[in-house]
Design a protein that fits this description.
Chain lengths: 236, 236
């Protein structure tokens, strides 16, 4: 790792990443800065990326250099990196205070770190333009999607056709690599009527998706189960 | 042109393009269909595109084949083309009725066709996160942007720093080709204070951008002048 080659000292606590993204937030003029504890920054999967799919990193992804912290929410993946500092004290910069999950606006809360488990499904059939209801003809439908979690591998994905009242297990494939999306699928014998399709992921850390999302002022870490209204119509 | 090679007959009126985009709109199940009058469809710049920048057309741009009608709004550029028909009578399909500019919801209105003139400017300085006001330090600033029109080449671009009360001419470069964006720039001696920057394009057909946008129920053909709030602060 670069940090080891650079000769990090034993009293190092945090690694501070500074991006060229400059602005004013709540009256404070700043460059975007986020830190990682030394142990996280030294993880073998943490990267400084200068290319993607064999081409230079595009500007919107952080050209020329971007921090990638697999499993963490996007605020940790500092773009347009201009500086990396190793600090012997805990870094308390503006953006370390900004990304916290608070139940009350004035409480201290907890830092946002890894990605909560989540499953999404491919909406079946075709859309009704205004309502976004999906229109499906009756018969055997393969409902499929992907699931992921930054905490631990996905253990199971369940589906519901009644808006979360009852759940059925799906067939889950292993993710192609530790941070990849896991494919899941389920066969649905669709008969005429109105449905709400949902999928719910659980991971090996014991986390799963909520049916009612707890409120937090930043709107962070939302992993409420997806709801897809479906109208199964008579065979056309 | 393909249409000539296909042996179009002399009584042809409209060319109807059908895409694979299937859905329900206002209760009508349909594939997306739009027509062009024969004279427009035969224009030498109208293309069936199967690649872009030397690579196959991406799915989101209409893979495997998409109609491109330079100078027209996007509704004419039918994606995922599945069929091309030549009709001896005027085509009156659903999407021909949908894209019309109406001053009253129940009037017949006029069809949406070519792109109205428009100029955009690169917001100078850096942003205030919440208000999106741009923060600029005093001094000589190059304000620059691009302008285009589907009706005729851009004739002039003017800028305003007082929200449209007064206007100054900019330096305009010719567009790189008939349908390209024309670059424009202007030097601004910025002194501390609050401003609203705008740019306004006029084309050789006599069209220019409005300061107050006439209302229409579809929200089509909006080319209201851009407004960028700027705070010039003391030199930092």
């Amino acid at each position: 790792p670069l940090l080891r080659e650079a000769g990090m000292q034993s009293n190092a606590v945090d690694v501070v990443f500074t991006g060229a993204d400059h602005g004013v937030e709540r009256g404070v003029e700043q460059d975007y800065q986020r830190s990682l504890p030394v142990a996280e920054a030294m993880h073998e999967d943490v990267l400084l990326a200068y290319e993607m799919n064999g081409a230079p990193l595009p500007p919107q992804h952080g050209y020329p250099l971007r921090l990638v912290v697999p499993g963490w929410y996007g605020m940790a993946h500092v773009k347009w990196l201009s500086q990396v500092d190793v600090a012997a004290v805990s870094f308390e910069g503006f953006q370390m205070r900004a990304y916290r999950v608070r139940r009350q606006p004035d409480e201290d809360g907890v830092p946002l770190t890894r990605i909560e488990p989540r499953a999404l499904l491919v909406p079946p059939g075709f859309p009704d333009f205004m309502s976004r209801t999906r229109v499906v003809r009756p018969g055997l439908i393969t409902v499929e999607g992907r699931a992921w979690s930054g905490w631990a591998p996905v253990r199971a994905v369940e589906v519901s056709v009644d808006g979360g009242d009852t759940w059925a297990p799906t067939s889950l494939e292993p993710a192609p690599h530790r941070w990849g999306w896991a494919r899941w699928s389920w066969s649905w014998e669709a008969t005429p009527g109105s449905y709400v399709l949902s999928a719910r992921a659980s991971d090996m850390s014991g986390r799963s998706q909520p049916i009612d999302q707890p409120w937090n002022p930043g709107g962070f870490a939302n992993n409420l189960v997806q709801r897809v209204p479906v109208a199964v119509i008579a065979a056309g």
